[in-house]
Amino acid sequence: MRRFTVPTVQAGHAIGVDLGGTKILAGVLARDGSVVRRHERPTPQDSQEHVLAELEAAVAELLDKSVGAVGFGAPSPIDQARGIVVRCVNVPLENAPLRERMGERFGLPVGLDNDANAAAIGEWRAGAGRGEDDLVMLTLGTGVGGGVISGAQPFRGRNGAGAELGHVVIVHDGRPCQGACTGRGHLETYVSGSAATAAAREALGPAVDAHGLVGLADEGDAKAKDLLAGIGRHLGSGIGSFVNIFGPQLVVLGGGFGVAAYEHLRGPAEEVARREALEPMRSSVRLAKAELGTAAGLIGAAFVGFEALDSA
Ligand SMILES: [Zn+2]
What is the pLDDT of residue 157? Predict the structure, then answer.
């Protein structure tokens, strides 16, 4: 049966909501990726109901007749089949039926995704990855998030929880991973901002965190540059494997630490990644710095909203 969709200016926008550990960042987005309006409020830490109420309030603040859908990015695996936020890191949200609740509350199509997937979608549609059909994004912050665009489609795996690229093993039986992860030797343990802070404290003293480490390297400090180069080489091991698996044209580095340290990580990461990667990907893959900054998550979340609208 042929379906007719009537394009109207009335549904030209989507609201994107990026749920973070400290802030809820929300925005109204046009299909070209431009942010029309923004809103932010603190993330409550006391209860699930409070978090849900604040997410609703953030949407309500921005809602008007131009909005046809809402998308959410959360720091959690997502059960796409059931529309559930499984368990957030740093936010009291577990087994939350966000899609159903927000759909009932606002009467609009609702999309959900992992925050790193949302950031990858944001960079693909409106940032460093514009025009690419195959890209891998790594967000280096407190942890390491991953997102993959494959054949011009976001890759989410069977139940929607993929792609957790920060939790691939780069050192067999290596350091224990962070938080609830029971693994060892995961990429996150070697290249996250937290890992950089731990390495900096050990080598340069307790006052130096990841931010200070990058500052010292920017000033030319040899020890700081060496530490970041070591982190870059570990990153290159991960990237080389991702290039072999996904064959992307582009690998985008984002997240607070990834962007700040980009110029120091890039060379060593590229050198190791090209050693590990096979032809023809080895020659064709490029590294790029994320362009959207902290807005990547909300922009990507809005595109997840458009995706829900287009498939409704
Ligand atoms: Zn892990």
Answer: 84
Q: Please say whether the beta carbons of 66 and 77 come within 8 A.
A: no
* Residue count (the chain): 312
Distance 123 CA to ligand 1 centre (A): 24
| Phi-psi region at 155: left, alpha or beta (left = phi > 0; alpha = psi -120 to 50) | beta
The first and second tokens of residue 275, run together, are 């050693």
Which residue in this structure is represented by tokens 């059909």? 133
- Between the CA of 108 and the centroid of ligand 1 the distance, in Å, is 35
How are the residues of the chain apportioned to helix, strand and coil, as percentages rounded to the nearest 5? 45, 25, 35
Q: How far is the CA of 46 from the centre of ligand 1 (A)?
A: 26
Paired with 27 in beta bridges are 16, 38
pLDDT value at residue 257: 95
User: Separation of 180 CA from ligand 1 center, angstroms?
Assistant: 8
Q: Please report, for residues 46, 84, 120, the alpha-carbon distance to residue 76 in angstroms, rounded to integers and kept in the order given.
A: 18, 10, 15
Q: Please tell me the distance between residue 311's alpha carbon and the centre of ligand 1 in angstroms.
A: 33
pLDDT of residue 160: 73
Residue 311 to residues 67, 156, 197, 252: CA-CA distances in angstroms? 16, 16, 43, 27
pLDDT of res. 10:
53
DSSP state of 294: G
pTM of the predicted protein model: 0.91
CA of 184 to the centre of ligand 1 (A): 7
Ligand 1: centre distance to CA 166 (Å): 7
Determine the distance separating the centroid of ligand 1 and the alpha carbon of 144, expressed in angstroms: 9
Residues of the chain predicted below pLDDT 70: 1-10
Question: Measured in angstroms, how far is the CA atom of residue 238 from the centroid of ligand 1?
Answer: 13
